[in-house]
Amino acid sequence: MNIYSQINSNKLKTWIIIVLFIVFITTILYVYGKATGYGLSFAGIALIISGIISFVSYYYSDKMILGMSGAKQIKKSDNPKFFRVVENLSIAAGLPMPKVYIINDSAPNAFATGRDPKHAVICATTGLIDKLTDIELEGVIAHELSHIKNFDIRVMSIVSILVGLVALLADFFMRSMWYSGDSDRNKGSGQTIFLAIGIALAILSPIIATLIQLSVSRKREFLADASGVLLTRYPEGLASALEKISSDKEPLEAANNATAHLYISSPLKNIKKHWFSSLFNTHPPIQERIKILRSM
Known about the structure:
Elements: H1 3-36, H2 41-69, E1 72-73, H3 80-93, E2 99-103, E3 110-114, E4 120-125, H4 126-131, H5 134-149, H6 152-180, H7 189-232, H8 235-247, H9 286-294
Parallel strand pairs: 2-4
Antiparallel strand pairs: 1-2, 3-4
Helix pairs in contact: 1-6, 1-7, 2-6, 3-5, 5-7, 5-8, 6-7, 8-9
């Protein structure tokens, strides 16, 4: 598979997942409406609350993430090598120069954040800058700039709104059942069936929504890999970098579950793995990413 077909495939798969997600939410709304007899009124409230939370997160999440990560903004004179790589690749990608941050940690990793290309940040650890060759560093930065160019923050914000809506709908539905009291006795057999389905969905839908969110996240990683290679024209640079990052066993101290999905490779190295843990991975398997890169 060449670079262009890989990019098109990943974009298509992302939007298919999002469309199916919307169909899933529409089904939930239909079942909840039938089960409660309230129609879609509580769905509107849930959407407003979820939208407000997502709006605040969209505009201020980058500052919170950088603060939690202990990242410090740098100038070109602070680290000319890293700054020039970001600067040169930004010009090549046709992007405004993002702000450049460094985390003082020897574990190699990097991430991009910001709501759009004009308000973007590239952040890397000192370990990444020290341990990678120039070609490998270019591969990583090209990947992160691709996240910015592909508006991945915006895509994931949309998905987050949908996940938040599912959780709120499930909560509202269960609360409505709790406070409905004796009125349940007057429900017909058809509504009782919808009630049973609704309860099952209220329990399972937040888990399903989270799995869909993680699936979209993994597809965007594949897309950023392919887009990054299109920028550098050298797949081996990123493939070699991913090998080094994944083989390094040192966990990133500043990372946590809230920020782990942003990094190019999961920074949480000491978490015990279970047979079902791959379902909840924020990143595709490193070996799969490397195999695809080397097939381009």
